[in-house]
């Protein structure tokens, strides 16, 4: 695994426990692989965080993702969770969004053990469906039609921007990062509403 550069925004780092919690509840993992020709490829996959690994699946039919996994087992994936957009300063660019994300670097492998594939499917159904509609539980007649992958994390980094309290948002508080900037005065070609007049 390549060595990572130092984290620039240490104030946004999540604790290991919070990163694991986000991995447990996240909706989609975007998995980056590299092909034999060196070209990157990103695939969005449903997944479960189980026993310290990220497990996901797709079709057993050969495709781009499987070809890349066969070519190189190092992968990187991200799970993110967007929040509310908020203003923090007096200029149009003084806007941010509350969000959290976890980046995982690791090694991917194909799961051949049927018991683990069964356990993965049970966990996947519990995470994404979790409704009892009267169908047989734990019966997956197409288990051999899917490929299950497991990513063993070598490095997990979580970052978040929390939604500030209303008292810490603009206009109650001006937190612009360019406090000395002065907005230009409206020109004569603009109407009273601030929008440009048509010629």
TrEMBL record:
- Using the UniProt annotation, give all residue ranges assigned to the region (Disordered): 163-199
The protein's superkingdom reads Bacteria
InterPro entries in the record, alphabetically?
A: Pyridox_Oxase-rel (IPR024747)
Name it. Answer: Pyridoxamine 5'-phosphate oxidase family protein
**Compositionally skewed regions (Polar residues) per UniProt:** 186-199
Species source reads: Reyranella humidisoli
